[in-house]
Amino acid sequence: MRVGWIGTGVMGASMAQHVLKAGMPLRIHTRSRAKAESLLEQGADWAETPAEAAEGQDAVVSIVSMPEDVQAVHLGPEGTLSAAHPAPILIDMTTSNPSLAVSIHEAAGKLGVRAIDAPVSGGDVGAREARLSVMVGGEAEAVKEAMPIFHAVGKTIVHHGPAGSGQHAKVVNQLLVASSMIGACEALLYAHRAGLDPERVLESVSSGAAGSWTISNLAPRMVRRDFEPGFFVDHFVKDLGIAMEESQRMGLSLPGLKLAQRLYLGLQQSGRGGKGTQALLLALEELNAS
Amino acid sequence: MRVGWIGTGVMGASMAQHVLKAGMPLRIHTRSRAKAESLLEQGADWAETPAEAAEGQDAVVSIVSMPEDVQAVHLGPEGTLSAAHPAPILIDMTTSNPSLAVSIHEAAGKLGVRAIDAPVSGGDVGAREARLSVMVGGEAEAVKEAMPIFHAVGKTIVHHGPAGSGQHAKVVNQLLVASSMIGACEALLYAHRAGLDPERVLESVSSGAAGSWTISNLAPRMVRRDFEPGFFVDHFVKDLGIAMEESQRMGLSLPGLKLAQRLYLGLQQSGRGGKGTQALLLALEELNAS
Hints:
Radius of gyration of chain A: 20 Å
Strand order of the largest sheet of chain A: 3-2-1-4-5-6
CATH class of the largest domain in chain A: Alpha Beta
Number of helices of chain A: 14
Oligomer: homodimer
């Protein structure tokens, strides 16, 4: 299976490498060619535009930053669907709007291209270790054909339904992460004020009903005052924005999401967009500064 | 070690049984004697009052419902400290106020009794399997003497500092549970509205960065519409009240806690105090009923 690949950020670069190693020839496009050099040295071809990455391939994958990038990469003037012979399977693995996934699916369908949305969870570590959770939306037959790509990068691969369903499942994932992060920050803030040793507290709470991935993996970083990404605040603000937009569209009021969005927007506006999501602790500390 | 034991509710009954089986003779008092019958048949003695349960024993343990019960059991006219020869070690395992734990410690100290607060986490299952997390506050020497009791009921036993520290650690635990529960409910509500299969969604999200004890253990109950306790809403409302009272006392503003308290109070006021904490889903569904 010859694969066009668009986007070689923290996630995309690791994932592309696994696909290449699994024996699928890659043709890569990315905004700054420098970020693709390592993959080009490993045998990938270079494409000047998204259209060129999709031209004549068996599938084209995108994993870029923002929904507007997804739109440009596929529906723009040099987008994959503008190719003379676009790849018959289009897979967007960016965390993006469910509604945009549906629009791309419709536009692609008119050209005989089957579009799949397949955002992932598991972070930089999951990408490096090919242990991602891949949340898939699209037509069953197309999803089946795309499976070699998903298996190359992921461990848990679940098909959730028609186009947009993968993005909806990712929203669910981020709702959980958001609340978990608020709990972890409030817990550590309380522990600090109460004069407790944070490491002993984590020992007490991590294995029982209060346990979570966040507590096991991010709370220790917070305790060490390590706020490096991991997962960027800027990207999480995007994800929470998508969650808010989609839930409002469905007439859903989610007060936990609303709170998380407010706190993370504050964090971004105070110049911490480039920190990791665990920097939420700083926002709660500042809220409580006297 | 001869142990006086006060309180044989869901948690207390299982825990007392483990202590008895570990070879420590028990003298039990509880509000309704019927709830102690099974333990009495297994060889425990009966005490008519908390004072009688504490009289001449090596240690006395309480695990009752509310902070006012804790106060009455130890400081009341028939309380453990009113005994002629009160047990020299007093252990309260109820989830109660850190400040009350300090008061009891002070009152006990005047009589030469060393008081320890040691609330637990792990629920009915953890109590039955003697796998609780025991969060301990008190003087190191007294804590050391009480260890046989903690080891009989728990798996993770952590000494957090002076009197009140165990209760503070339990507040931390409940802050995490509260946010986790909000996240789980919002996630399932969103998944439902988006037309996703909730079981497949749980498969996608449970093993990665969104994973938690709540998602693995309570979300499946929510999906089955099983709202039986587990852990009572009424008890959780008490715990959140303690968390709020203590954080306000320390001048801490915790917006996630505030939201959880508002939602759980609403749930209690609509007559769901006897349901399990996962019934929070009902509150969020009603918030979104058109």
